[in-house]
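Cont'd.
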Amino acid sequence: MTIAAARRVSGEQTTPTESGKTGRIAWLVIPALVFFIAFAVIPLAGVLILSFTNWDGIGAITPAGFANWASVLVDPDMFHALGLTLLVMVLSWLVQTPLSLLLGVFTAGTQKYRAILAVLYFLPLLLSSAAIAVAYKALLDPNFGLGAGLGLPFLSQDWLGNPQLAFGVVIFVIAWQFIPFHTLIYQGGVRQIPRSIYEAAEIDGAGRIKQFFFITIPQLKYTIITSSTLMTVGALTYFDLIFVLTGGGPANATRILPLDMYLLGFRANLMGPASVIAVILVAIGLALALFLQRLGGKDNNSSQLEGM
Amino acid sequence: METKATPSRRTFISLAIAAPLLTWGLTSCGTTGPGGAAAAGTASMWALSGDPNETIRKNSVDAFNKKNPDAKLSVTFFQNDAYKTKIKTAIGAGQAPTMIYGWGGGTLKSYADAGQVDDLTSWLEENPDVKDRLFAGAFGAATIDGKIFAIPIQAVQPIVFYYNKELFEQAKVEPPETWSDVMSLVQTFNDRGVAPFSLGGQSRWTSMMWLQYMFDRVGGPEVFTDIFNGKADAWSHPAAIEALTKIQELVKANGFIKGFNTITADSNADQALLYTGKAAMMLHGSWTYGGMKNDGAGFVQDGKLGWVPFPTVEGGVGDPKNAVGNPCNYLSISSKASDEEKATAKKYFTESLSNDEEVAAFIETGAVPVVNGIEDQIKETPDSDFLGHVYELGANAPAFQQSWDQALNPTAAEALLNNIDQLFVLSITPEQFASNMNETLGT
């Protein structure tokens, strides 16, 4: 509270000039900055330091030099996990983007029952990842699950026990969980496109499909970039769902990098190598986010509505 | 004035909100969790959830608190697999409970090496009543370099070979005595549309129990002793390769229920498969007897549950009386606890742990507590047959191998479990398993 009081006093003393205003606005960033430093920058620095040490999570921390980096960077398991992470990223994007785009366009419209359907689509958003994983695990159980209960042999596959199937299931459940969120983003994007563009296109004789490809999609450029950034960078953080659903198995078939990091650090007590993986994840995440922002063009403030 | 007042009030409000949040954010890192927040005279304990143990422990703590109004003892229960991670993190963060529940062995050694648990040797010498009441053999996995770091609690937990008598009668077959009996039973039950073995393979330590028995039956207890002592290439011992190969043959013959590697032991679904008649046999801890008695709707009480010693392997050298499992569970005292907390914990050890009520409660659930002089009590219970079998396995086995994942250090244990998972879905060969595991020797 002393900080607040001090700030208030200084705030009142500032004269209402142009420079005074920007000064006030600048220090408004402090709360956010403090949180960012306390909960992002400091832990990140800690992880970076830990990546050069040996630590079992309990005993003393001893310096290890580059040993952890050397061992992780030649570890085939790490590259296997990295490959799976990239595969999850690409497949998730390929599955989720078209579906959420179409659903977003649909829910932005004015069709009958649209509101009711939209509520149903958004339902998975309300559930936590752990709850979703537990539910799917129960439904897909080969002995007590949906297939056995309904007597449908097609559904009684060894969904989570077969390495290929398990990976597919993970992609499906991730899509089931996150499509509603991206649908919401696209819905908002579509609603911002001015009606007049579509009206003009109709007069020019463009049909629904042409309108979708030549108006909706180009107008959604920045929405697509935002959604894609969230999807791909988000793929680097998928953990809870997979941890509960498969635990990384069977035979490491779903052991993606974040899970590998957790299992190394907290199960095998190898905090050093786990920290190396954490740093790698941060680097990949930053690189991806920057790359996707670049895709949006250099001038982020350029208008899509020029000439309107 | 209007325009000037508005931003300054707003900024004041934003800071007024931010400041307490900030204080909360900073202090929440420093405050102690449920474990360490205890005031004088209080103490905390973490234990595993799941009945019957959870209820027995809860009743014991309640009775202790009633008897000692000034000593407030609290207990929190966690699921097995989640607990193993949580306790490690809590200890590392200096937020361990006063009493740490565990399995002894390599994990306890890592706590002891880091100076996180108290040496109880001298206290036990001063209080011989506490020590002499318990099985002497149970202290083995709690002893590191001649010092005792934990006190044995609860019951002996050998791994038992269970079978569903009803299914065996229907198929007109006898329980197996040798490995070839096992393989022919697999054929028989698969032909009848019943899974031969139930297994909660996603938990991985469940599959490990198979390897432990197979290693023993093929090569005797010395094979793992070499591994434990870090002898070079110990996992490539011919007996180890043979045991691993035989396990994969069992997997290939569909010996385990479909989807076994998606079933977790924490959900008890593996037990359910046995008592609902979906699987004919199961290798599992003696503690599941109590669970099946509770949940099996009369399965145990009606005498449908059978058990035999683990079959011998033709040409193997292991004594058929050898057993594997957990000698018992353990409670250690956190060295970070205050003197009052430690005093309360020791008082609990002396007064309540394995007292007559607790022993009676364990025997009633079909468990053999790690307490001397209970043979007569065991004979009088309706579960005396099972208890006798467990007593035989736990107290009289020529060699009793502690669970590998507890005996080894945590890093090697995690590598072991990960390789077991791959072995059971046939994605690596026995030789690859051995060479992967050889790399962990001596770490």
